[in-house]
Every structure is written in C-alpha cells, then in structure tokens.
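Reply to dn_fold:

You asked what the input looked like. This is it:
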Amino acid sequence: MNVKFLVGDPDSPEGPRGFFRFYRDQWDEKLFGPRPVLDPLDLLEKDSFRKPIADNSYNIGGMREYWACLNNPHWRQVLKDWVRFGIAQGVDGFVANYFYRHDCHCPHCVAGFRQYLGERFTAGELKQRFAITNLDAHQFDEIVAWHDPAQSTPLRREMLRFSQVANKRAFDDVFVQFGRSLKPDLIVAQWNHLGDFNQINGDERCLLPGELWGRDEDYLWYSTGAAANFSDLAAGVLGEATLQARYIRGAFQDKPFTLGKYESVRIRVAIAELAANGGAPMGFYTSFKDPEARREIVRYYSFLRRHEPLYRANRSHAEVLLLFPRSRVYEGDVAAVGRFKELGKRLLDAHVLFDILPDDSRAGVSPATADVSPVASDSAARRPDDKRNARPTTLLPTDSRAHYLTIIDLADPQLTATNVLDRLPSDFSHFDAPRTVRISASRPRSEPDVPVGNEITLHFVNYNREELTDKKNHGSGIKDEKPIVAPPCPADLKLGPRQRVSQVEFLTPEGENVRQLEFKQVSEPDVPGTRLRFRVPEFLVYGVVRIQLSKED
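and this is what came back:
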C-alpha cells in the first residue's frame, strides 16, 4: 500500500484528475465511510508558504506528484479506511511504501516537531545546542528529512530523526494498532530503500532509534536501487548486496526480508545471494516470459523448495561480528559507513564467516541472558556521556547466534581494511576460494526429525561471469548472465570441541543428485576434533554443503 505518494491534479480543464478525482467523485462511503475532510488539499504536505508540496519527476499520465502528510490525523483516517476495506476483502497483510517526509510545514508537523524537541531537550539544552530561546514561539525556516550529509547539522539531524520516528508511529497507528485490532494475525511490512548504505540522504530508518527498528513488523522489503545490479569484476565490483542482506538480517533479528535489486540479467546469482544470507529470493524484476530465464527461475526455486528445511527459519552461523556504525551516523559521520563497507568487503574477499549488527542494537535480550563477546580493541574511542547519544552495549542472544570469536568495532580508530584480518583469531575457518565467490553459513531450525543444531549449512555464491566489453551496457536478459564455473576449493571449517561430523553432502541447482564428499576431522593441540577439512566441488552459481553432526555441544 502506498501510504502517501499521490499522483494527480487538484484542478485542470477536465476537473480534478488522479487521486483528487478519486477523492471527489469515486470515494464510496458505503465501502470506506465518510470522507475525513471535504477538501483533499487539507491532507497534503505543505511548504513554508502553506502551499502543497508538488513535483513532476514521474509525469505519470501528464500529472504531478503530491504527498499526503503522515502526521495529519485526517490522512491516517484515510489509510485506516483503506485498511479496513482491504481486510474485509480477505487480504493477509500489507506491504507499505513511500515513507518519504519532505520539508513539510503543515500545522501537524510544526506542532509535532515542537513537541518532539520539548520532550527530548530541556530549555537550556535547546538554547545551547540550537539557539532556540522560546520553543513555542520559534519559527522554523525548515523541518527537513533526508538531506545532504555534507550540509548536515545537529538540528537538521533532529529534524530527520523526528521525521523517521513520526513515520514509524504513523505506521504503527494505522497497521499495527488499528489493522491488528480488526485482524490479529495481519501481516504488516515496509518497503524501504537502502541503496549502497546511503545514510542521512537515504534509508528511511537511518536515524530511527534501535528499539523502534522493525518493531512489530513481520517482513521487510529493502531496495538497493542501482547499487547492486551490475558487475565490474576487474575492479572488484561483484554487483552484490551481501553486506546489505547481512545488515538487515541482523537488525531485523532474522525475520523475513527481501532485497529489490532491479536485476534482470544475473537472475541465478540474485536468487542465490538472498538464499545464502537469510533472505527471501526475489524474481520480481526478471523476464519470466523469456524461456531461458523461466527455465532457470523454475530450476532455482524448485531447488529451494526441495531443500526448504535448510532455509525456513534458519539462523546464521558465524565466527565474527562486524558492527554497523549507526552511532556515528547519529553524529553525522557518514565516513564511518565508508569504513564499514571497506572492512566488510575485506572480510567477504577473505571468506570470513561473519554477521552484521547495528552498534546500537540490543537484540532483544537483557544482560542476564546475554553472551557478550569481547570487542576488537579495549582502547576503542568512546563517545561523550550523553543519555541521548550513548551507545548501548551490543548484546548477543546465545540461543540464536554463534559464539563469536571476535567483534569488529569501528569505534577503534586504528582498525582498517588493511589490518582487520590481523585482528582475527588464527583458528577461524578458511576457504581457498576465488574472490568472486561469497561464503556464508547457517543452521537449520525446522527440519523434521532432526534436533536443532545437528547440521551446519555452507552456502557458496559465485559471481564470476563473462562481462560485456562495453562496461556501460549491463546486459538485457539472462542471455548476458554468462556465469563462469567456480573451481574446486579446499575448506577448513572450525568446529566446536564436542562436535562430530557424520557426513558431508554437496548440492547445487544444476545437479539432480546429492553428492557425498570425503572429509577429515582433525585435531588441534589439546582440543580434539575441532577442524573439518574437505574439498568443495566446482559449481556454476550456487553450491550448498550440508555438514551433518552426530553430536552437538
């Protein structure tokens, strides 16, 4: 459901068009109830001159674009009327999108921002931090949302934070409180935009407090835009969204999500990438009417269906935790995000098994039940003691995540992509695979007749391909995917001291039969049976290794 993006013209030679014609002439009070307001202009975002904010970016049907205001209770009533109607038609749930707030100066936004500041800061702090001497009388020249990080200020970031908190409250009001009051099992989800980790100028949740991030939501759709739908292998660009997938998986605490990659060429790798990292593989942008594309779509989704117990409700199995620096984003430090991406790529290239969590995440556990692993550096720089900005300790629930060997924390200013591998324990798992291969691991949680924890699943995703000579041409369908087979590679997996392997199997969508692999379980000094060594066969795009354990720690 589109929650605020409206296409139409309030007036034209033919009268109102688009949404405005619907609201005036086609709103059926028998279906939706009475109109919340008579004039639809009263529902819209307004600029500082109290005129509706409009644009003409899409020019759909020659009409302009307007935005309703989610802080406007009358617009929320419109959404509730639509939700009630949808539930009456039997829908299972709603995926809501277009959570964009602009520089809106409608009475609801002005009053809401004043209330937000008054609850968050004392009068003295408002004066010291923002030169606001009288909050009730202060006139705001702007109440922006997304903005250029280079032009960011503490007050602008408070405006953005207000925007994102207000949008979350509106979502909860309409879909969680109201929607689930009518249908308790209503599925509620958001479609948002992450791109290449755009922060402050992108990501609808970039300043949303961690305790609100995904709260009471069942599912997430995140768009990567044009950031991950092409490759330049010679430059080390795989056209992947592995980091985005792991970030969302961690922040959303393993609840279902998908990524919109706008990928119509590398269909197999797009499906494999999400399957390997806890997501729901998307085929939405593929040309399924193309016989070759359809054949591969059927092949890959059939593979996932046959082996569904490996994927449904599985949990990541990792040895290292990389923290996403949301606490630095709160301070306007988007350069820290650049460091995060560099570190993440270095870990991916080295085939380190790692998870990602925001550094403000509490992961839903209390200190009494948490297993807190050591940080990468005890001398890491700490932030000022401010209750609004203090970063909580990242806590890791022992029942759902690996016992990490180490945590990589960007608060350590000495940590770089060059030396990050030196910070890792020498006994972490090793895979001698090309840099065009990405490796992850998971633990199945729903396989019938198999106790939880009796298997480790390794996922290998191969991005290598024959690229077009013209780098500006990203291809036009699966005929241009042209994957190159990944060669066999040795694997050396770290196991727990009491884990014993009974068999190792290899699966791939292109192979009809399960292949049994030879393996050796070898000892380390004073710790018997803690390494598993085997050889991963060659594969085209996606290979899966199932490691069956006969005894779990």
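The longest strand covers residues 527-536.
Hope that clears it up.
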